[in-house]
Design goal:
- With 78 residues, the chain is mainly alpha-helical.
- The protein has one domain: Arc Repressor Mutant, subunit A.
- It starts with 5 loop residues before the first helix and ends in a 12-residue tail after the last helix.
C-alpha cells in the first residue's frame, strides 16, 4: 500500500465505504472514467482482480494503521 499515490489512496478509502465509481468521482472531483483508470492501476499495483478484493485488502491493511488497539475500538453502526 505504500506505493500508492495520495489520489489512489483516496479512491481506495472511498471504495471501501461502498461508494460507486460515480460517487467516488463526485467526492474526489474526478470523472467516472478517471476513477476507472485509477481502479485499473490499483488492481495491477496490488495484485487484486476486482473491487471486492481491493476493499478487503484496504480493510486489512488500513485497519492496522487506523485502529492499532482493536480492544479499545468501538463498533460503529449506521
Amino acid at each position: 500500500m505504500n506505493s500508492l499515490t495520495s489520489c489512489e489512496r483516496e479512491v481506495v478509502m472511498a471504495l471501501a465505504e461502498g461508494l460507486s465509481n460515480k460517487d467516488v468521482g463526485r467526492r474526489l472531483n474526478l470523472s467516472e472514467g478517471t476513477v476507472k483508470v485509477h481502479l485499473h492501476n490499483l488492481y495491477g499495483k496490488l495484485g487484486v482482480k476486482n473491487r471486492t478484493a481491493l476493499t478487503v485488502l484496504a480493510f486489512t491493511k488500513f485497519a492496522r494503521v487506523r485502529t492499532p488497539d482493536f480492544k479499545k475500538a468501538e463498533p460503529e453502526f449506521a
